[in-house]
Amino acid sequence: MRIRSRFCADLLLVGFVAAFSLTPLQAQSTESSLKGAAIQQRLPKRLVADYTYGSKYAIPPYDIAQIPFHKLTHINYASIPWGPDGSLQIPSGFMNPELISRAHAAGVQVLLLTGGDFAAAENDPHVLDAVIANLQNFVTANDYDGLDIDWEFPQNATDEHFFNTLMTRLRAALPSPRYTLSIDVAPWNTPFYGVKQLREKINYFNLMVYDCAGPWTSVGHFNSPIFWDNRDPQPSECQPGGSDQQTIDMFLKLVPPLQINMGTPFYGYLYPDINQLFGACPTGSCSTTFAQTYGKNIKQLINQQGWTRHYDSVAMVPYLLKDDGSPGFITYDDADSTYVRVWYSDWTRGVGGTFMWALDEDYDGHSQDLLDAMYRATIKGK
Q1: Which DSSP string corresponds to 138-169?
Q2: What is the mean pLDDT of residues 260-278?
Q3: Does the predicted TM-score (pTM) go above 0.85?
Q4: Range of the domain at 60
C-alpha cells in the first residue's frame, strides 16, 4: 500500500519559491495555556482539518468563508516543503494571515503542515540546522501554533533514528505548551517511525488509515474499512493496520489513547475495470484506478446516473456498483460511515480525536455532509 503524498497537489500550484531567513524569533508563550483550554472546553475531542491552500482555486472554490471554524479544534494548513538546502519552498498564494486570525478568534489552532527533502536533512547536519531554524522562524513570525510533520515514508532504522532527532530538535525550537507538534503515520509503516520514542516529544499522532485502495493494488479494496472484512483476498496490500479497529489495537500498545487521532477520507477511488467488491483487476494491476472527491464527484453518483449504493455490514462502509453489471466499482465514505468511524474512534475506543484529508473534499458548493457527520459524532459524547 502507498499513501498518496499530501504535497503533490499543492506543488502543482507553486508559482515561486522563497527561502526564509534563518533568524529565530522569540516564542510568544503567554497565550499557550489559554488557547489549549478554550479548545478543550469547546469540543470534547480533537477534530483536526487538513486544509490545502490550493482549495481556493478549485471548482467550486473552498476558502476561508467556507470554513466552519466552530466545528474544528485544529487546522493543518498544507503545505510548505523544505528543499535540499533546508530553505522553505513557499507556494504563490500560500500566505494567509486571515486564516490564522479567524481561527484564533474561534479558539482553533493552526499548524503548518510540512515535510520535504528528509534525505538531505538526514545526511547533512547543516541542512538540518537550516530546516529547524527556518521552520522556527516561519512559525513564530506568522503566529502559527505548531507543526504537523508528514514524512512519506521513513524506510529503515537509520530513518527512524533521524526522525527522533528531527522531532527532538523541533520540540526544543518550538517548546510546549505554546506549540503543538504532530506527525502523520501510515499504520503499515509504523516500525520505522519510532513511535515509542516520539510520544515524549510530540502532542499526538495522526494515523492515516486510508488508501488501502488505489492504483497500487491488484484488487478492489475498501479505501478505509472501519473493521476488516476477511473476504478481502489480498490483505497484504493493506496490512498491518488495514482497518480502524486493527490500527487502534496496534497503537494502543505503543501510546496512550489520548495521543491518537484517527484519519477519515473525504475522497474515494473509482476502479473502472472491475464490477464487484474485491474483484481482481485485469493483468493483476489496478493502475487505471483514480481518486475522486466525495463532494464534487461521488455524491452525485449515489443511486443516480446508473450507480447503486451497496453496504458492507462487516467493514461498515458503503460502495457503488453499476446498475447493469458493467465494470465500475467505487469505494468511498458517506455521512453514515463517517459518523460511525468517528463515534467508534472517539467514544468506543477512547482516542483523543479524529482528522480528515481533506477539508474541502466533501464540499459540493453548498454543504459538507462528511464534516457535519464528524462534528455530530464528536460532540455526541458531551
Answers
A1: HHHHTT--EEEEE-S---SHHHHHHHHHHHHH
A2: 98
A3: yes
A4: 8-266+334-379
